[in-house]
Structures are given as C-alpha cells and as structure tokens.
Amino acid sequence: MVKVGIIGATGYAGNELVRLLLGHKDVEIVWLGSRSYIDQKYSDVYRNMFRLVDAKCLDDNMDALAKEVDVIFTATPQGLCASLVNEDILSRTKIIDLSADFRLKDVKIYEEWYKIEHKAPQFINEAVYGLCEINRHKVNKNTRIIANPGCYTTTSILTLYPMVKEGIIDPDTIIIDAKSGTSGAGRGAKVNNLFCEVNESMKAYGVGTHRHTPEIEEQLGYAVNRDDIKLIFTPHLVPMNRGILVTAYANLTKEVSYEEVKAVYDKYYGKEFFIRVLEKDVCPETRWVEGSNFVDIGFKIEPRTKRLIMMGALDNLVKGAAGQAVQNMNLMFGFEENEGLKMAPLFP
Ligand SMILES: NC(=O)C1=CN([C@@H]2O[C@H](COP(=O)(O)OP(=O)(O)OC[C@H]3O[C@@H](n4cnc5c(N)ncnc54)[C@H](OP(=O)(O)O)[C@@H]3O)[C@@H](O)[C@H]2O)C=CC1
Ligand SMILES: CC(=O)N[C@@H](CCC(=O)OP(=O)(O)O)C(=O)O
Question: Where is the active site (predicted)?
Fold first, then answer.
C-alpha cells in the first residue's frame, strides 16, 4: 500500500482528497495535516467522515511527514508548499501540490501575480505541470514534484488546447468567460462568501487581474511554441456549491465545418477516459459532471462573426483539484490512471 499524507486535509480540496483516497484500493491515508484542528478528530471537522475517518488531525510538519509517507499532497494556500519543501524532503517522498506554487515557470511572473516571494524557486523547473491529458508522458515513477493545475485553468486549457495546437483559432483573440461555485473559494470564513453575499447573485471578480491568466497563457503558449500569448480571462462567482463552466471565444483562422472541428477534438480526446466531447448542439452543464473526474466539452461555430465558441464544464473539487491530484498520483506510482476515479457524476 502507498502511504499518503495530506497537508491541508481540513480544507475543501483536502476533504475531497480524503473522500477519493478512501475509495482507492492501493493507498492508506496516514497523516491528516491541519493548522487549526490539531488533535481533533477528523470526523468532528467533517461529519461526512463519521466512522470512516475518526483519526486525529496532525500538524503540517513536512519534515516529519516525509519520513512516514510515500507521497504528500499539499492542499494549502499559495506559498505554503514552497516554504516547506527542501531537497531532503524530496529525496524521501513525492509531493503533489494543489496550490499554484510550482505551476508558473517564470518566478518573476509568479511573484508579480501572486504578490508573494517564492521560497523554493530551485524546484520550479523540476516540477511537472500535471495536466495529465496533455503532459501524461512527463509523469512517471521518477517524478518527485507535481504542480497540480487548478479548476479554472484545467477547464480553460483542456477546452482550448486542441483548437490552438491545430491552428483552428487565433490564440491572440481568446476571451474566456468562466464561472465557479463557491467551494472554489475554500472553507475559510470570508464575508464575500457568506450566504447572503452569494445567494441569488452573480458577479465578475479579478477582472483583468486574475492570477490564472498568465498560467493559461503559458500553457496554451506551449501548444504553439510562443511565450507572448495574451488573452482575457474573467471569472465569475455563482451561487452553487461546486462546478466550473467556461465559455471561450476566439476568431477562426479559416472556414471550418462542424465535422472538421469535431475531428480535431476527437484526435486529442477521443480515447481519453475523463474527457467527454459532447454531441452536436449539446452544451456542457456543471450538473452532469458533479462529483466526478469528467470534463465535458462542447463547441459551436458562429459563422456570422467567424468565431468559435468553446465550452467546458468540470467539478472544481474533483478534476479541478483532488481528482486530478489522484490521477497524477496514479501515474507516479504506476497504477491504472483512473483507479479510484471511475465514479459516475452525481445527480440530482
Ligand atoms: N477549492 C477549490 O475548488 C480548489 C482549490 N485549489 C487549491 O487548493 C488549495 C486549498 O484550497 P481549499 O481547500 O479551497 O482551501 P481551504 O481554505 O478550504 O483550506 C485550506 C487548508 O490549508 C490549511 N492551512 C491554511 N493555512 C495554513 C498554514 N499557514 N499552515 C498549514 N496549513 C494551513 C487549512 O488548515 P486549517 O483548516 O486547519 O486551518 C486548510 O486545511 C489552494 O492552494 C487552492 O488554490 C485548487 C483547485 C480547486
Ligand atoms: C471561486 C474562487 O474564489 N475561486 C478561486 C480559485 C480557486 C482555486 O482553486 O485556485 P487555484 O486553481 O489557483 O488553486 C479564486 O478565484 O481565487
């Protein structure tokens, strides 16, 4: 059995990791790390885990944890993983970081958009950007550190990547309109996330400044060997628990038919277990992917404006966080990539 430790087990992404790992036949959770609930029963923090996970929460001592486990998941705020990791730790255990600490390859861009100093830039190049459907070939038993992509970026990149790579759209014209459920903001108490602030309302935020913008630009840039793509990314907060919906717009580079676009998506995703390219005129909906590791993708050619409209939906806590992290763990340990992740979406 692979021994697993989770730092940040008491957050929403951490709790989702616990849920998924309980259903994984090859792992054992041995460390539930927390900052605020040390020595409290995990099932007192999350009653859904009553009689399933009654162990007590431990601290976030990565040094001690690295001696006990084969892999550490860090589901913690930006900057924490980078402030704890060192060579000694990486020589003993693997790290899958759900935060953004190792996602951007240029430390200056990280510091500019995240407004914090990067405490471990020496590991940025080594870290693999764990978007499995695109970077699967880079994740194996020798991989020591995974930069696990987040919810908005996973949806946006997977929805756009084949179209950019195959030159169907002009990458300099991309506009991404994204919506997220409130669990995307985490469990920590914040006025903006109170029921009365969120219920019966919708809003854009981080307009023109959201930190996921450079990450999407960088990853789509790899598709066309460029480092100067600039796009618009506007996130919105919507009154639902889970789910990300992306609607992306871009200019077509030539006249294309539905069949041609579909053939490109099928070329990239036809054999992917977790990506479902929907039938003609069917639009992705968050309710059809909830609780699962699936990403649903749809598109429509808009001949009047010569644009392509691309849509993607996933569950932010599963494929957008914990599910993708488990998918990466499976690749790192040579398990079936979908082990522990085959569940159908939950509905209603
Ligand atoms: N929520 C989502 O949909 C997604 C989240 N992510 C990323 O996952 C990470 C966790 O997010 P999320 O679960 O939403 O956040 P939460 O606020 O729900 O949880 C944060 C976790 O980090 C712990 N923590 C906070 N500060 C510290 C600290 N200084 N030292 C040690 N532990 C600390 C908290 O411990 P305690 O509870 O004990 O205080 C808690 O377990 C973030 O980097 C986020 O960007 C990525 C994709 C999607
Ligand atoms: C609704 C909401 O507040 N969402 C968060 C993103 C959540 C997230 O998971 O961020 P990472 O992908 O970087 O890990 C935000 O916009 O900051």
Answer: 151
From the CA of 211, the nearest ligand is 2
Nearest residue (CA) to ligand 2, atom 12: 150
| CA–centroid distance, residue 123 to ligand 2 (Å) | 23
What are the residue ranges of helices labelled H in the chain? Answer: 12-22, 42-45, 62-66, 80-84, 87-92, 107-114, 132-135, 151-165, 195-198, 212-224, 258-269, 323-333
Tell me, what's the pLDDT at 291? 98
In the annotation, is 81 catalytic? no
pLDDT in tens, 18-67: 999 999 999 999 999 999 999 999 999 999 999 999 999 999 999 999 99
Whole-structure pTM value: 0.98
ipTM over 0.95: yes
- Which residues are near ligand 2 (CB < 6 Å)? 99-100, 150-153, 180, 184-185, 235, 237
**Residues whose beta carbon lies within 6 Å of some atom of ligand 1:** 8-14, 34-37, 60, 75-78, 80, 98-99, 150-151, 183-184, 186-188, 316-317, 320-321
Nearest to 226 by CA among 216, 237, 236, 218: 218
- All structural domains of the chain: 2-149+319-333 (3.40.50.720), 152-315 (3.30.360.10)
> What is the pLDDT, as a whole number, of residue 312?
98
Tell me, what's the pLDDT at 196? 97
Kindly write down the DSSP assignment for every residue of 146-202, as one continuous string: EE---HHHHHHHHHHHHHHHTTSB-GGG-EEEEEE-GGGG-SS--GGGSHHHHTT--
What are the tens digits of pLDDT across the range 219-266?
999 999 999 999 999 999 999 999 999 999 999 999 999 999 999 999
Given a contact cutoff of 8 angstroms between Cβ atoms, the answer to whether 226 and 170 are in contact is no
Closest atom of ligand 1 to CA, residue 180: 3
